[in-house]
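Re-run with default settings, no changes from the original entry. Doing this only to confirm the output is reproducible before filing.
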Amino acid sequence: MKSIALLALLPSIVLASPSFCQETSHTIGSFVLTVENNPFGHGRNAFADTGVYNDHGMFLRCLDNVLSVAIVTEDQKWTPGDRNFRIAFRADDKDIIYRNGVALTDTLIEILDSGSLLDAMSGAKSAAFRLTSAVSVETFSIPLRQSTKAVAVIKNTCADLPDEETAPPAEETTVNKPASPPLSPSGCRTLSNKPCIPWN
């Protein structure tokens, strides 16, 4: 698995202050979890990123109290704003869920009305997608570990409920030691287009 800065791909997120780069991040199974204070209101934002497997990735998010799922397709390029996507989703052997999608960037597609996908994903060991566009149909699967915990953090964040998994590990809470965002090839992960200071 190679890590990707999925959060930096979101074009709808306005630049935040440098302090917004201070993220609480750690790993839950196959997810890299990031929890932030919401700079535009009360509560928090949360993101769970799987990274990329065979040119495909996924992240779960709670942004401005809205649950959603997005997928990354590194083997295809799309036109931002294109809404001509039909997505079939299946977690393990559960019921198939059909949704529409919209391209946020040339590789990032948000699945519309995708809150129910998180419910189906909880406890699952894999997430399968069939992405149908005007030019292609592709099917791919993403392995999941500890999906129950990751989904719970995202949903609790949107409900503004406390969850022990949203806290950084003990070693990250040392006085005067800022929590480090998850490592990626381009530096730290951030909701801002301003880069954070890289770390080793």
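The chain has one domain: 6-173. Residues 1-22, 163-200 have pLDDT under 50 and may be disordered.
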